[in-house]
Amino acid sequence: MIPADYTFDPLSVMICDDSALMRNLVSRIIQDAPGMEVVGKAANGKMLLDMLDSGTKPDVIVLDIEMPVMTGVEFLKERKNRKLKIPVIILSSIATQGAAVTMECLELGASDFITKPGGSTSVEIGSVGEELVEKIASYGGIFGRRNGKKLPFTDYFLQMLKMHSAEKFVAKQKGSIGSSLSATKDSGSTGSFSSSGTTESRERVSFQPVFAATKKEPAVITPLREGGPIKIIALGISTGGPNALRDVFKMIDPHLKQPILVVQHMPAGFTKEFAESLNKICPLTVTEAKDEDKIESGHIYIAPGNYHILVEQRSLGNVIRLSQEPQRNGHRPSADVLFESVAKIYKNNALGVIMTGMGRDGAQELAEMRKQGAWTLGQDEESSIVYGMPKVGWELGGVQKQVALKDMADEISALARAHL
Question: How many helical (H) and strand (E) elements, i.e. helices and strands, does the chain have?
């Protein structure tokens, strides 16, 4: 039983952006997320390094790319030279026009990226606020917990953000802004976030704490047929995916015969460069999928941003089809769309893989793949940046075996060889 006065540590964030307006707007998003605090703001990479040298210890850094004195890319190079482990999330307006630079940032060790909507100083930054909080909570949470901090898990930061936003809305309607946070302090809640004593301290915010994702026994699926030869591999992944896929594909069997179709939740304009960056380190050919591509053996196809990817059966060989049908589970591309088409066409002649990511995209149709007799794998909790998609896939009975990220390439390769 967790004592009612249990106190969590705040998740600390540093912001580095040459725009004072943007620093303040991003800071406001973070400060509005109960349990997070801004512990420093820098106008360029050099200033950021100086603040780190002076003893500021963030759990995560939000970094712009284009800045004077020291750019984001230059900071990441220096971070790598110094062997700094603090995770970095790129938040940049050049990312859409300069996807290659964004991929270079990932290659240099950045954890993930978000594009600034509307330009470098746009007040539209609020539209990506929830995504920013999710990634800060995911990457910063893992880093903080590994360094001894008492932090809740990602979904609770998002729940609290939504609750706080709803309270602010209600308070505004009543003309009583300022009372919303105190309204959460009631005798029925347990646990609280504490102020860290920084210049931007937080009010204490009570909530029902969770130390780990709630576990329940998985559903039991009885496949309609036994697993057969694997003719295709379908993979769905989201938050934490760019670097996880780098880890998997650089170690994949160079003699793998089966094609791999991948849904990585990523905005339009990035997936071509992402595929090219993977192609540099992968022994197999990696490309962004195109409509009507013939599905070739030993080839990896990345779903293009803003398009669903699915398989269509043809007499001369199956092909890839791209679709702009409505989002599924809030995503396009959606792993559920891919898994659904693979389950329908390949039945027990497929391998489905679900990896790190927020939410449940892919989980339902992975269970359908399993029902049809397909082989299935899911990333385990410990190695997932966010144990959301693979967790739901496991609970629905769609995952035969949970695998650590470091073992995923070997597991996929071994299954593919054994069931060729």
Answer: 13, 17
Quote the DSSP letter at residue 124: G
Q: Decide the pairing of beta strands 192-193 and 7-8.
A: parallel
Q: Rounded CA gap, 293 and 296, in Å?
A: 9
On whether the CB atoms of residues 63 and 41 are closer than 8 A, the answer is: no
- Cα(267)–Cα(413) distance, rounded to whole angstroms? 29
Q: Which of 60-64, 164-168, 294-298, 325-329 has the lowest mean pLDDT?
A: 164-168
Mean pLDDT rounded to a whole number for the chain: 88
Residue 109 carries which side chain, given as an amino acid letter? G
Q: Which residues in 185-208 are b (16+ Cβ under 10 Å) and which e? A: eeeeeebbbbeeeeebebebbbbe
Question: In this model, does residue 147 exceed pLDDT 50?
Answer: yes
Catalytic residues: 238, 265, 361
Rounded CA-CA distance 86/78 in Å is 13
pLDDT tens per residue across span 185-203: 333 334 565 544 443 344 4
Supply φ then ψ for residue 245, to 5 degrees.
-65, -35
